Amino acid sequence: MQQIKNFINGEFVNAESGKSFDKRSPTDNRVIAQVSEAGRTEVDQAVAAARAAYNGEWGSYSMEKRVELLYAVADEITRRFDDFVAAEMADTGQPKAVMTHAFVPRGAANFKVFADVIKNVPNESFQTTTPDGKGALNYSTRVPKGVVGVISPWNAPFLLMTWKVGPALACGNTVVVKPSEETPMTTALLGEVMNAVGIPKGVFNVVHGFGPDSTGEFLTHHPDVDAITFTGETRTGTAIMKAAAEGMRDVSFELGGKNAGIVFADSNFDEAVEGIYRSSFLNSGQVCLGTERVYVERPIFDKFVAALKSKVEKVKFGRPDDAAANYGPLISHEHQGKVLSYYKKAVEEGATVVIGGGVPDMPADLADGAWVEPTIWTGLAEDATVMKEEVFGPCCHIAPFDDEQEVIRLANDTAYGLSTTVWTTDLTCAHRVASKIEVGITWINSWFLRDLRTAFGGSKQSGIGREGGVHSLEFYTETRNICIKL
Ligand code: NAD
């Protein structure tokens, strides 16, 4: 049985209390690791180590030296690619192809991209006129925030955690990471990588545990944490924002979504079906950017529903390393219960189940896994529960629409504002619609096409702030202005 320890000041350590919790496999519910649960003591130690590194060796490094080390981190992740793929598959139960094509390469890229960003960002300066005519020069510098608390979720654990650790370190901060209790493995491996390439002790620390009354809360309330970056549920974000208010700490939040996909009758039909299929069902629907509300222009509505159903029918459930399978379980029994309760509620509120709606029959060795069927509904009112709340499972509701203004109104009728997809061959219409949808990112004739240099984040209750490219510097650094009288 694998033992997963906290990583504090360059050492793997068990919690002083001796407390630990089980990590279970999503595919068959076996206990696959024992994880040491960090208490207040370990959180204090991790924050103190991060502070000492920030004030010490790491803080004394030039930007070039940090950049060199972050490139080495990315290269070491790539060298240990198979270890990261195996760990991420064990943690999430998702198909190997998702890990090898997206989750692990993106984890490595997150270190190189932000190393490049920090190398190339200019500072502003202004020539200022003064009453005596001699003038003044204003220029700005960027300084790191200090010790950054990173709280990350389970749905794409390595990618989402490194998306924060990469820029935080590139900017010269040190970090204490609390990964999700559901997915501790790749964060632990990253500690080995940091030591292997010579990142100084205390720069990167990991504390494992839960959220409320546990590690997450101890970290976010810790007075020596200067800023908190969080990805997860909007409700959790609210609790963390309250914690950050103590001491007026800055927050960056990437939260939930209830994203709309809009398919016009003139779209490339096959591409739209494929795009909506991926955006609704990839990673078993556990993607914040996923589409849970689909609006299809009426002339192609029936054909679209039939085509999406036929793609879902071909899903093959199985273990991550089963080459014949292309579909994984949900992360846990707890999440399975939540998703199934939404499935039940949808039917109670009048949904027509086009396909799915329950738990698939699985062979005996997988029967205890957190499996649910990918599900398509039609016929729900716009105020039905699954039209308003994020399910975060493999499901979507498809509704017809008749005109552009109507679909814009429907897409915006949500408390969330993360992303949308628009499918049309009329680019003027696409621009018009994109300009009116209240979200952080709109994809036209595509989905999840990410350029890490672009701004990423949510509007409304889907987030606060933007990360990505130079936008990450807004959160991971502070700008100082220096004014010289000439
Ligand atoms: P979650 O909010 O339950 O947990 C996220 C992390 O917060 C975990 O590490 C958890 O232990 C910790 N946590 C929970 N309560 C806490 C507290 N009170 N104080 C401190 N830490 C606490 O989210 P999840 O279920 O892991 O992830 C799924 C959610 O994340 C979905 O809502 C999804 O949309 C969202 N998400 C958003 C993005 C984005 O970029 N906007 C990306 C991925 C996931």
Summarize the topology.
Blueprint: E1 2-4, E2 6-8, E3 11-13, E4 20-24, E5 31-36, H1 40-55, H2 57-60, H3 63-79, H4 81-92, H5 96-120, E6 125-128, E7 136-144, E8 147-151, H6 157-170, E9 174-178, H7 185-197, E10 204-206, H8 215-220, E11 227-231, H9 234-245, E12 250-254, E13 259-263, H10 269-281, E14 291-297, H11 301-313, H12 333-348, E15 352-355, E16 375-378, H13 385-388, E17 395-401, H14 404-412, E18 416-417, E19 419-423, H15 427-436, E20 441-444, E21 459-460, E22 463-464, H16 471-476, E23 477-485
Parallel strand pairs: 1-5, 8-9, 8-11, 9-10, 11-12, 13-14, 13-19, 14-17, 16-17, 19-20
Antiparallel strand pairs: 2-3, 4-5, 6-7, 7-23, 12-22, 15-16, 18-21
The protein binds nicotinamide-adenine-dinucleotide.
Nicotinamide-adenine-dinucleotide is lined by residues 151-155, 160, 178, 180-181, 210-212, 216-217, 220, 231-233, 236, 239-240, 254-257, 288, 390, 392, 418, 458, 462-463.
How would you characterize this protein structure?
The protein is α/β, with parallel strands linked by helices. The strands form 6 sheets. Strands 15-16-17-14-13-19-20 form a 7-stranded mixed sheet, sandwiched between helices. Strands 10-9-8-11-12-22 form a 6-stranded mixed sheet, with helices on both faces. Strands 1-5-4 form a 3-stranded mixed sheet, with no helix packed on it. It is globular, with a radius of gyration of 23 Å. The protein contains 16 helices and 23 strands. Helix 13 links the parallel strand 16 (375-378) and strand 17. The chain folds into 2 domains: 2-255 and 462-485, Aldehyde Dehydrogenase, Chain A, domain 1 (3-Layer(aba) Sandwich), CATH 3.40.605; 259-451, Aldehyde Dehydrogenase, Chain A, domain 2, CATH 3.40.309. Nicotinamide-adenine-dinucleotide is lined by residues 151-155, 160, 178, 180-181, 210-212, 216-217, 220, 231-233, 236, 239-240, 254-257, 288, 390, 392, 418, 458, 462-463.
